[in-house]
Amino acid sequence: MIQRLALAAFAALIPPAALAAGPWLGNGIKSGEPDQSSAVVWTRLTSRPDVSADGVPWPDVAAQREGDDWVFPAPVMPDGHTLEEMAWAMPGAPGEVRLNYWPESTSNMSQTTEWAPVDPARDFTHHFTLTGLQPGTRYACIVEARAPGAAEASDRVQGHFQTAPAPADSPPITFTVVTGQDFPRRDDPLNGHKIYQHMLNLAPDFFAHTGDIEYYDKPGPWAVNKAIARFKWNRLFAMPYQRAFHNEVAAYFLRDDHDTWQNDCWPTMQNKKMGEFTYAEGVDVFYEQFPGPDRDRPWRTVRWGRDLQIWLVEGRDFRSPNDMPDGPEKTIWGAEQKAWFKQTVRDSDATFRVLISPTPVVGPDRESKSDNHANAVFQHEGDELREFMAAQKNMIVICGDRHWQYVSADPETGLREYSCGPTSDAHAGGFSQDRREPMHQYLNIIGGFLSCTSTRHDGKPVLILRHHNVSGEVVNEDTLSPETVLSAR
Fold first, then answer.
1. Crossing angle for the helix pair 335-347 and 379-390, nearest 10 degrees?
2. SS3 444
3. Which of 474, 478, 479, 477 lies closest to 462, judged by CA?
4. Sign of CA dihedral 400, 403, 404, 410
């Protein structure tokens, strides 16, 4: 759980006057992008210590149809009220932050950064980039806040993150994967999404969010400008379940369509409108609100010991228009990312190689969709990637985007894909059991998450993949060994 100032170990360190005045760390921290020697810790200063339903509710405003397009209306706030007064608002605040961090088992190796101002132009956020870390180490950290020019801290949050083990080591590694969440479809109105407490109980070494982390193009309010987009992030990550989880588990955040701009979007899309809010601004806000990745090269691969290597790809910024005719030039990943992916996969000697993708590669998907490699409109590149991955030893795909859980095996290549499913049952849908195909190994139209454990049984490597429902219960389990995953052909 969140370890805040109320803990006796820290409360006595902050004078009551500073405590009452703030600023606060109402969004906690997000640690991310861990490898063997580095990580990023994100935080944001707020004018309130905790999120609250108190405030002015958003009116119900519908999008309007204009020809073949939807036009999203500006939010209508009651006269005399500001954004900061709306329900669940978590306004930012000026001030400074610093970070103290150390290997959890060796407190005499503590390091402390200098006080640094948060950036009002970037929603009062700050990113601490840490280097020179030890591999395979659990770090503890404390983020402190203070008002501009103040001598005393006004708030503290303690957290943890894990670095990746060296490639020669083979400790057990557990990680969890989710997709598709938004504020209105949370399943605990006061605390957020229930799966976060269940994932935290597994003590994962890391977490991957495959995208659609929030929905700009859903009402309550529509994100028709940058300020509203930030409002939606601020309230979501101030929810107690989300805050508690991200204080403790380092993450890799991927981005899909709804948390970039709008449904099935691409960079050059011109015919759709989101008020004043543009595709480029959606990208800007993402990088301000999350700890990485590198904006210039957002694709990355990380080795987690001898037996596991993951690849995380960018599926929006380099894609061709969805409505472009299919063929060799049509792409979702772009030439540079695709070449990098193939080369680094070939170079890897990890026992299990896992692509974590924002969108499906194998499917099956609905025939009406036209946005991913499992759809006919991207078949050329989809075939290319499926053939390539199936030709590698022990490689699988974990995907997000689809609002149901499944395990499938491509009938042409045998490539296996695991869809993690959305974060709540209210978010599940879009498919049905009567549409089950022979390629499905498992199919369930529910919310929940996927957990994966790389470990060794009697000295032999195995990869255990489990689908969980929103209560954390295991509803499907696969144990893969090098003999059961499709081998190189």
1. 10
2. strand
3. 479
4. negative
